[in-house]
Backbone:
């Protein structure tokens, strides 16, 4: 083995700025609309929910935004994250492709989510916020926010989808260990929760309900703000630190990716690794394919429509331009919980509509097969979300082999699977089933939309 | 924050040699004895259990042993591991002490154990071994060996103490994911297991029984060998890569530790970080206190005796010179499962007897309190084993404050607690109880020993 397995950066190479792709987009993302009036909303409408600095970032058109010194100091706990050449996987696939991956699972919360949780909590702290509320499904985001709130000594209330709260007790305890309060949603703490429970005392909850509860708590208490782990522009921008580091690491490795691949839920993972490479595309110096991979059970990018839709089920959020399956779409209970969201963020949706990026959907058995091969050849057990990227990597590597091409592939290994062991157990026992959504289900869900169309 | 939080090394700074402290010891460790004849055994007696290269290392008196290139390549997946300045913890303690920690939880298996699992599997592979057996209690060692066997494509059979097998299902699945086979022990697969089950079909198992089963499988099949995760000389030597890196990192930080602290189970964790600093003591250039911390419920170093004892309960292993509580001692079911072993390795025992190192015991509530403070100030959730070191660090830092002294403290954060969340849950719920062993229990256990005494 003469190939360098790990490509590292020194601490002083941690990027000083996040990249705001909006500055370079030929077609800018459409504005959010008020859910009632359907008119574009101004930044001031977001003030009850977010601190001013994050609102400024949300609407910023500056190309780079400086990372505060205190945030960079905390990033140093796990950043720069390593990049690896997947020598073991390459050998197993017998492919001429060179496969690289950026590994974000080294963060204390085990995923890329702290990249945005830390600055979000920092800006809230600077503006005197005492408590932050959020929702979480699988638990990656709630863990990251609890971790960050622990470091800044801010209260953290996490509304966790009840079925996950009951099925993933370790996630809850992890959040508690960092000082986070975790409530099964729907709860009796909010108007939204009480309403749902009155209708159905046994409601298993959903991400849409949990968002409504977290948003309501922020709207009804002045010292409380709300935080979101994906979809929004500022969240995606914070994640670009992944791709900025990856650019430096690819240079160090003496390669440049022909294709960059990431799993897709709301867009933060994909944006994080892909946007800095897209900058090079947009600047005209390179041409890299940027590929988002979604589960076949929640295929908004490949089978949804591009129109305005709500971020939650209840209608407490603005209308956003997105590729969507409809805000009432309920994805099957697949194990990649972080990818079970009905819509995509505004920026990513615009880029897809403009054909600047590609999207594919893959079924979960192929993903787990890929994840297992990866664990046994590279040693790291990937989160179920991350296996979607790996499955696509294997497709690309096999195509390279068929074509006899040396292709450089880079993907984002966004997190480890330490809290997803039951998923692997079910896969190993042969108990996982496929969940491919039918065209009828999608059309049914979309038919319920009365939101503005686009173009 | 102007202090550098993380002290890293580049890949080419990974040490090329392990350090064998036996070469420098003024009193060499006593030889192992045959359990029947009580006579010293030669290396050839170990051949049914271990590959020749590991036996050579077990009895080596060379000061340094070269790390094979292929092992170093795999080490690169997670090594060099980071060292951190515990700025958050220091601030919370308001101490003049400077606290550093080496973090081994970044390995794919989440602890320091792969440092020896990888070379052990490598030497077995080189000598044509097809299957490796081992025992595991809490699961850290079984996970590490499964991980390493996965990379070298060797079969791995893990005998897991039945009560852990049932109580820690995620650990089992983790091993399965890497391809390891996991059997609850006692099992019907071995003579030893069948005997135990015939006497007590509901036996919860013990580490002693699991060792007997794993050893029996190796003794009865020529293509199968046995592997141990602590206690033995070669295992401790492999772990010295931790301290060798730490020496370089302390130099980079411009400090040198006044005290080095590690949790103590069988000795591999402590030896790993402390032996390279002890070398500097033995060479006369430095004087660092090396402190082992054991649970109050299993206090072999602080309350046991120094004499020959068996490594297992059934008597299938050689007699080793050790600080021991007696091989029939059953520690209380504390959450730091990795520290529930009745004896200490031969080298560490000799060093303690010669007053070259110090030992303290701490109760588990103080340890979990320390672990929680650490999680909330440093962001990393420590394994219950590691919290023992943190509790001692806090004692030392508070003493430094009381004395107004700037003291440099280094400890080994040997692993994360991702698979120990139920322990934190019980602590947070106030359900953890103390388990301090009585003098009577210790004397009772020691009274059963008919093994040779020392000195």
Residues:
């Amino acid at each position: 083995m003469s190939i360098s397995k790990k490509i590292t950066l020194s601490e002083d190479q941690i990027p000083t700025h996040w990249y705001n792709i909006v500055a370079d987009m030929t077609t800018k993302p459409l504005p959010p609309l008020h859910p009632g009036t359907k008119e574009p909303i101004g930044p001031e409408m977001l003030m009850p929910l977010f601190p001013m600095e994050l609102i400024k970032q949300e609407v910023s058109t500056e190309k780079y935004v400086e990372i505060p010194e205190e945030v960079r100091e905390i990033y140093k706990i796990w950043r720069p994250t390593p990049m690896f050449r997947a020598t073991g996987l390459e050998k197993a696939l017998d492919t001429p492709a060179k496969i690289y991956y950026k590994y974000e699972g080294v963060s204390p919360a085990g995923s890329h989510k702290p990249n945005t949780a830390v600055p979000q909590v920092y800006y809230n702290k600077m503006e005197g916020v005492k408590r932050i509320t959020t929702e979480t499904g699988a638990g990656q985001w709630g863990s990251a926010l609890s971790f960050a709130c622990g470091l800044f000594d801010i209260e953290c209330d996490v509304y966790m989808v009840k079925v996950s709260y009951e099925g993933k007790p370790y996630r809850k305890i992890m959040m508690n260990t960092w000082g986070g309060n975790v409530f099964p949603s729907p709860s009796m703490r909010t108007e939204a929760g009480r309403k749902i429970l009155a209708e159905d005392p046994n409601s298993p909850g959903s991400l849409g309900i949990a968002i409504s509860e977290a948003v309501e708590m922020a709207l009804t208490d002045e010292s409380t703000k709300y935080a979101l782990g994906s979809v929004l522009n500022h969240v995606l921008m914070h994640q670009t630190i992944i791709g900025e580091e990856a650019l430096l690491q690819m240079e160090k490795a003496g390669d440049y990716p022909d294709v960059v691949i990431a799993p897709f839920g709301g867009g933060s993972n994909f944006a994080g690794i892909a946007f800095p490479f897209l900058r090079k595309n947009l600047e005209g110096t390179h041409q890299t394919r940027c590929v988002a991979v979604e589960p076949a059970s929640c295929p908004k990018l490949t089978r949804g429509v591009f129109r305005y839709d709500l971020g939650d089920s209840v209608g407490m959020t603005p209308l956003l331009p997105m590729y969507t399956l409809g805000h009432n779409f309920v994805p099957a209970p697949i194990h990649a919980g972080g990818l079970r969201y009905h819509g995509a963020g505004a920026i990513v949706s615009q880029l897809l509509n403009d054909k600047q990026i590609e999207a594919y959907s893959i079924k979960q058995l192929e993903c787990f097969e890929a994840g297992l091969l990866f664990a046994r050849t590279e040693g790291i057990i990937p989160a179920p979300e991350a296996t979607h990227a790996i499955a696509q990597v294997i497709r690309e590597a096999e195509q390279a082999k068929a074509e006899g091409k040396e292709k450089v592939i880079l993907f984002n290994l966004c997190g480890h699977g330490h809290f997803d062991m039951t998923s692997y157990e079910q896969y190993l026992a042969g108990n996982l089933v496929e969940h491919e959504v039918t065209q009828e289900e999608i059309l049914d869900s979309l038919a319920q939309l009365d939101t503005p169309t686009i173009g």
About this structure: The interface with chain B takes residues 1, 4-6, 8, 10-11, 69-70, 73-74, 76-77, 84, 88, 106, 108, 110, 147, 150-151, 169-170, 173-174, 176-179, 372, 375-381, 418-419, 421-422, 424-425, 428 of chain A (CB under 8 Å).
